[in-house]
TrEMBL record:
Annotated UspA domain residues: 1-145
A Pfam family reported for this protein in Swiss-Prot or TrEMBL: Usp
Name the record gives this protein: Universal stress protein
Organism: Telluria aromaticivorans
Coiled coil, from the record: none
Family from the record: Belongs to the universal stress protein A family.
Length: 155
């Protein structure tokens, strides 16, 4: 049914838990896994005429975010490899994570986007805004939302 599944992560305990569930689902489907970490765009210091020496350069920031993304996606890659699934990972940069997730799914030919939800409702959901809700409203692809009722323990 699904041949290529995009699994997103932000490195949180919730997204790591979701990613493990995503790999298990991909294994059941016999699908390829594409892991994605969306890092914020580099921000230049505002209202500063001279960039402080301790402020990272754009190249340093990009390299650091790529390392962080590889760390976050490492568990997904190991799990997919142990499950015998074809797998890849990518770090993308955008200040609108939801739109980047939709773009990557489209560009990479993914059949399904697998992502998590914190299970918040009412004011918590309204005030926080949800990347998952934004993805749902901007894509025509199927999205499987793995909802967690309780926060998993940090690993």
């Amino acid at each position: 049914m699904y041949r290529k599944i995009l699994i997103t992560t932000d490195g949180s305990a919730v997204s790591q838990h979701t990613a493990c569930a995503g790999v298990k689902f991909a294994q059941q489907m016999g699908a390829e896994v594409l892991a994605l970490f969306v890092a914020p765009e580099y921000q230049y210091p505002v209202y500063v005429e001279i960039i402080p020496p301790s402020y990272p350069s754009e190249e340093e920031y990009v390299a650091q975010m790529r390392r962080l993304g590889e760390e976050y996606m490492g568990k997904i890659m190991r799990s997919a490899e142990n499950s015998g699934l074809k797998h890849a990972c990518t770090t993308a940069f955008s200040d609108t994570a939801a739109l980047k997730i939709v773009d990557v799914a489209e560009q990479e030919g993914c059949d399904l986007i697998f992502m998590g939800s914190h299970g918040r409702s009412g004011w918590g959901q309204l005030l926080l805004g949800s990347v998952t809700n934004k993805v749902l409203s901007h894509t025509t692809k199927p999205v499987l939302v793995h909802r967690l009722i309780n926060e998993p323990a940090a690993a």
